[in-house]
Give the backbone structure.
Amino acid sequence: MPRTFPRPARPGRVEFHPKSVHPTALTGASRAPWLDLLLVRLVFALLCVSACAFFQPFGLGRLEATLLGVAFSVAVVLFEIRLKRASLKRLIGAALGSVLGIFGAFLMTLVLAQTSLSGGTRSFLGVAVLLVMAYIGLVVGANKGDMLNLQALGGLFGGDRASRRSVKVLDTSVIIDGRVADICEAQFLDGTLIIPQFVLRELQQVADSADGLRRQRGRRGLEVLQRIQQMPHLQVEVSEENFPHVHEVDLKLIELAKKHEAKIVTNDFNLNKVASVQGIDVLNVNELANALKPVVLPGETMRVFILREGKEYNQGVAYLDDGTMVVVDGARKMINRTIDITVTSVHQTTAGKMIFGRFDDRSASPAPPAVENGSRSPESRASEPRSADFPPSEVPKQS
């Protein structure tokens, strides 16, 4: 889904400075210094030009042979630059396909040698078959290379696959949410965390917003990133890849995750669904929070703080620490008090879990406000949003 934020010019901008960003390419290979790489390419080009000028192939003159060496060296360097973007699977597939194609061309050349064709025609057909078979093997092998299972070979290939599976991409929403820092601190997330540059720009736009609440959320997101950087068990990398042909941030995240075989960490429902359809693993913080909510069974007794009245007659509404709403029958007179209730049923809704309970005012007396069994005082409860907070008009009736 497209997400755009206004970015007015405001003083006091909050910047995110990646102090611990490693100067490595996100493909996992070390990025050689550009000067050393340029020197290697120049030496290779000089050797190619010298060899062509000395041997003068195809009966060419010295000048024509020198130009041929220059063209050959440039073509090889361009091919080498293109190969750097290919994955290891594609390279292995292309190599195997080329070898099989050359072997097939050799067999066909043996067949041509038994024909009555003239020598020139037979030589032309042999070279043509060799080029065609090698080309077809190269292209088909590269396209089918992704089907190779390198992990089955073990050793170096198994380690490479394992390292790729530990790469995760952070979304803007999960950074602003802030809970991902607590998850990382508890070491439920490890390996390499990729922070795309376009996510940082979007976060900066939120931090520069004219809306005070949005500006505060953006600055909190930058503080969360700085907190994550200081964790020693994590490797934080900033990706400069932008995918200019893709305009939406969510689609850019999906393309980046595809390229690096990474998982997306988010709490955006729509991004979760789109990425799952395209076969990308998603770590949803909201799903993790719902999975960690305490299990409550009918018949159990729990202590809650009644915050307000419910929709139905004589109902009271309370909330647990994780935001789960508790609807209590017979507790309308117990607002702003902590009471013991008996759980009658538990319902799972699209917004989260809801607990229904019953309070017997004939055998129980109200207790003073306390923090017990997942309940909190109204002061601490009012300072944070609740994921399952329904208005009184939307509280469903207990079945």
